[in-house]
Design a protein that fits this description.
Elements: E1 14-15, H1 21-25, E2 29-32, H2 36-41, E3 48-49, H3 55-68, H4 70-91, E4 102-105, H5 111-123, E5 128-130, H6 133-147, E6 154-159, H7 165-172, E7 178-180, H8 182-186, H9 204-217, E8 224-227, E9 232-233, E10 236-237, H10 240-247, E11 250-256, H11 258-268, H12 270-273, H13 276-283, H14 287-303, H15 307-330, E12 338-342, H16 347-359
Helix pairs in contact: 3-4, 4-5, 6-9, 7-16, 11-15, 14-15
Length: about 350
């Protein structure tokens, strides 16, 4: 008769908060034992979802707990959890080596992550359960985002709409420079036309976790490049301590001529040029500011395919005045900022600008 392996309890092992960026990179994997919808709202940086209960099963167990008590909830939930963990280990973790060392968490560091951690450790892997779970990590992120920005000096990239601020940040990110690209993290370009095609914005919590993750990897002894954002990027709020510190930063102002600005904007918003009806739906939101007559003018330019004329009118009537009002009010250093001339909107030109700035 085949002798089955004897399963003995290994010593309990927990990881404790707070976590640093080095801590997060120290495990071979970070496993989120929560349901898919919880994971989608936000999760620890780099975590993969290993739900021990899916959304429907979690709702079923939760209803049983409310209506019939803890015992019935556990009786219903236990076989579901066992079956799900079995599938995860037999499928996704079948090739993991003996020395594999994952960090496991759930909502509060309770039964879901506890069950997965227990089975992983029984197999022989050195799995650790995160004490306090996602809830504790979320508290850490909120507290850290109140304190972390003060440690950094920000170089704020200013400039009128279409001057290439986002492109310069993208180019800087390919150099040794430290870049906090809030629009990339928020999946939004920050204006009424700023939605990215096929890329919905993350939740507010996920946006803040992404900011925390970026700042946690930066060296406070070196400057951080950031764009001159307002308090909101699309529907997401920039943390108050961060926006306050950014507005204290030294500014660099990009200046580009009309031809370069028009070219960059038509490239950035090509998806709206290809869908004039969607473009006008968005511009119609500006009617309270500019009146129906101007909206009709923009509609006519779009309908005629006069994209250069439309961009010029939008810049003159809406974007440039809005930029002047907000920029010089919110960023004290914008008026006396070092000017960076953008004479060529090509990728190579922005890379050259970025290398020069990074070298400084």
């Amino acid at each position: 008769m085949t002798q089955l392996p004897e399963f003995r309890d290994r010593p309990a092992s927990r990881a404790r908060l707070p976590l640093s960026a080095a801590d997060l990179s120290g495990w071979d994997a970070i496993l989120d034992a929560r349901s898919p919808s919880e994971y989608a709202e936000d999760h620890l940086p780099g975590a993969e979802n290993c739900p021990v209960l899916d959304d429907g099963e979690r709702a079923l167990v939760g209803t049983a707990y409310k209506e019939r008590g803890a015992f019935e909830a556990k009786r219903i939930g236990a076989p579901l959890v066992a079956a799900n963990i079995a599938r995860i280990i037999a499928g996704r973790f079948a090739d993991r080596p003996r020395h594999w060392r994952p960090l496991v968490y759930c909502w509060r560091g309770g039964s879901r992550s506890g069950a997965l951690t227990h089975v992983l450790r029984q197999v022989g892997w050195d799995a650790l359960q995160l004490e306090g779970g996602y809830k504790g990590f979320r508290r850490q992120v909120a507290a850290d985002l109140e304190a972390m920005p003060a440690r950094f000096s920000f170089l704020v990239v200013c400039g009128a709409t279409g001057s290439g601020k986002s492109r310069l940040l993208e180019a800087l990110a390919t150099t040794s420079a430290q870049v906090l690209d809030l629009e990339a993290l928020a999946a939004h370009r920050g204006s009424v036309l700023g939605e990215l095609p096929g890329a919905p914005q993350p939740s507010q919590k996920a946006f803040e976790t992404a900011i925390w993750s970026a700042l946690a990897r930066f060296d406070p002894a070196r400057p951080v490049f950031v764009e001159s954002e307002s308090r909101k990027v699309g529907n997401l709020r920039v943390p108050e301590a961060l926006i306050h510190r950014m507005r204290e930063g030294r500014c660099l102002r990009l200046e580009a001529g009309p031809a370069v600005r028009t070219r960059l904007l038509l490239e950035d918003y090509a998806h709206l040029v290809a869908d004039p009806a969607r473009l006008m739906e968005k511009l119609a939101c500006l009617a309270p500011l500019h009146g129906n007559e101007r909206i009709a003018r923009w509609d006519g330019l779009a309908g005629a395919g006069d994209w250069t004329g439309l961009v010029a009118d939008l810049l003159e009537a809406h974007y440039d005045p809005a930029y002047r009002r907000s920029m010089f009010r919110n960023y004290a250093g914008a008026a006396t900022a070092e000017v960076v001339e953008v004479t060529d909107g090509s990728r190579d030109a922005f890379l050259a600008l970025a290398r020069g700035l990074a070298a400084q």
